[in-house]
Write a structure and sequence with these properties.
With 173 residues, the protein is an all-alpha fold. 68% of the residues lie in helices and 0% in strands. α1 (8-15) crosses α6 and α4 (61-72) packs antiparallel against α5 (86-104). The longest helix has 21 residues, at 111-131. It is globular, with a radius of gyration of 15 Å. The termini are far apart.
């Protein structure tokens, strides 16, 4: 039986680990897309935006990992099952994306960048399906692929996608 090959985008994201600062920047930009969803339910001891800000400002892996530990300790992550209600599920997805993004700073294998991508992708798929906000995943894939190739404009595009998501969510609610 042959081995399954990983998607080319995953390989490109994993290769970012050669430059840990670049890998961290890409993971942060991806997590920022879903950051607004973290405010849909009170899961963290303080607003996710504040914790995310400290992760963004980390200058070394230890600082980022310390913030990831704060997020990892929330009660919702100690449960056996993810929440089924949409607001809490979306919020937890945002928290998990930020944990992976924080851990990407010190990840020599690049797996945490891939995990960040996969979690953001899961959340965006649900946003498209449940809230009827089309096109998010396609935009995200394109920006992530460009960012993996070193395109700094793609990081700005991902930040813009997060702002667009927030605007669309305000229109839905």
């Amino acid at each position: 039986m042959g081995q399954l090959s990983e998607p080319p985008l995953y390989a490109a994201l994993r290769a970012l680990a050669q430059d840990r600062h670049r890998a961290f920047a890409v993971a942060i930009a991806m997590a920022e897309i879903v950051e607004p969803l973290g405010e849909l339910a009170s899961l963290t001891p303080e607003p996710l935006s504040e914790l995310a800000g400290r992760i963004r400002d980390a200058t070394n892996p230890d600082q980022a990992t310390a913030e990831a530990a704060v997020l990892s300790a929330i009660p919702a992550l100690q449960e056996d099952e993810e929440p089924e209600e949409n607001p809490a599920w979306f919020a937890l997805g945002a928290v998990v994306a930020w944990i992976y993004a924080a851990e990407s700073f010190g990840d020599p294998a690049g797996q945490r960048v891939v995990n960040t991508f996969a979690r953001v992708d899961d959340v965006l798929e649900q946003v498209e399906e449940v809230l009827g906000v089309p096109g998010l995943c396609d935009q995200f894939y394109g920006a992530a692929a460009d960012a993996a190739r070193g395109d700094d404009a793609a990081l700005r595009a991902m930040r813009g996608l997060g702002r667009s998501l927030l605007g669309q969510l305000r229109g839905v609610s």
